[in-house]
Design goal:
There is one protein chain. The chain is an alpha+beta fold. The protein has a single domain (8-106), classed as Alpha-Beta Plaits. The chain has helices at 26-39, 56-71, 92-106; strands at residues 8-16, 43-45, 50-54, 77-85. The chain has a 4-stranded antiparallel beta sheet with strand order 2-3-1-4, with helices on one face. α1 (26-39) packs antiparallel against α2 (56-71). The radius of gyration is 15 Å and the shape is globular.
Length: 107
């Protein structure tokens, strides 16, 4: 059962439709990232995804809230979500990358 902080990493990308002639979705995506940052959960935003770490219910609630704020300004929203569920592990947002860097350094 997944029930403690750090049990999962969820990488997600929200894709709103845009009426901006340039195709920019920056404003809507910024609102979604604002939701993630306000959650207080460990997170990282890159050019393509935001990854958040925590317990299933709290992580999924943040993803839902992020989609909800984007849907307020976009009539259609796409969501891509990938989860790494590993009960009993926390700090994996950085630890996974650190293990790869260590392996690379050993070469």
């Amino acid at each position: 059962m997944v029930d403690s902080v750090g049990d999962m990493l969820v990488a997600f990308s929200i894709s709103p439709t845009s009426s901006d002639p340039s195709g920019s979705v920056t404003g809507a995506v910024a609102e979604a990232v604002r939701v993630v940052r306000a959650s207080g959960l460990p997170h990282e935003t890159t050019s393509m995804f935001t990854t958040i770490e925590g317990e299933w219910d709290e992580v999924m609630a943040v993803v839902k809230q992020a989609v909800d704020v984007v849907s307020q300004v976009s009539p259609r929203v796409g969501l891509v979500l990938k989860a790494d569920i590993r009960p009993g592990y926390e700090g994996q947002l950085t630890a996974k990358v650190e293990r790869i860097e260590q392996a690379l350094a050993e070469d």
